[in-house]
Write a structure and sequence with these properties.
The protein is mostly helical. The protein folds into 2 domains: 37 residues, no CATH class; 43 residues. The relative contact order is 0.06. It contains 3 helices and no strands.
């Protein structure tokens, strides 16, 4: 649908493995002296997944700990009556 709507001279379809050259040529800007960022590679995805799992784990530990402390406090209060 995009190919049908956008004029060919205004549309760039590229393979990210080609690096900066196709994009920079299309935009008529100089090619940077650094590799094209690849935030979507397997290593970055694995690292992001580990961070998310770690955060979720810490949240659940907090919830369970707080619930346990509240339950223990309520039990001690009830038992002391």
């Amino acid at each position: 649908m995009v190919k049908a709507m956008v004029p060919k001279e205004r549309l760039l379809i590229m393979n990210l493995n080609e690096g900066w050259e196709p994009l920079c040529n299309f935009l008529d800007i100089p090619v940077p002296n650094e590799p094209l960022p690849r935030s979507n590679d397997a290593e970055a995805a694995e690292r992001a997944a580990r961070e998310i799992v770690g955060k979720v784990f810490r949240i659940w530990v907090g919830i369970i700990t707080t619930s346990g402390l509240v339950a223990f406090g309520a039990w001690k209060f009830w038992k002391g009556r």
